Request: fold
Amino acid sequence: MFDDREIIEAEAHCDGPCGVYDPASARIAAEAVQSMTTKMLALECPDTGDSHAMAAYLNTMSRYAAIKEEEAHKCKSELLVLWTDFFKPNHLEANPNLHDVFWNAAKLCSACKVEVSSVHAQELMDACENIHNIFWAAKGREVPWVRAS
Reply:
């Protein structure tokens, strides 16, 4: 046992000192949001009198909506981890608008959850690309922005 008077010092750079951060997971989630938004806007509503076609339409639309909301939430979570765990005061000095960048990106995640907006889905992708660039610059690396889709 440790003596009550003994102080043990531990250090970590974040809440979970894994050292593995990458904005790619936020990008993938944002791409899924954009994909589901595009699919929702392209899905044509059948004649409401055709119960089988209407059931299939509602099933597909609800699945797209569920995935869009889940991925928007995932994107927000990934962004918030980067914002709160990776970025430090020295990064804020280099990027004075860092808090606004992340706050606006998180708000876009929320907008994409409650709306079906191709404009907001693209704005979320643009925000993720900006964060990608800031993140890799902070690590002193040039990593190209590459979309999966």
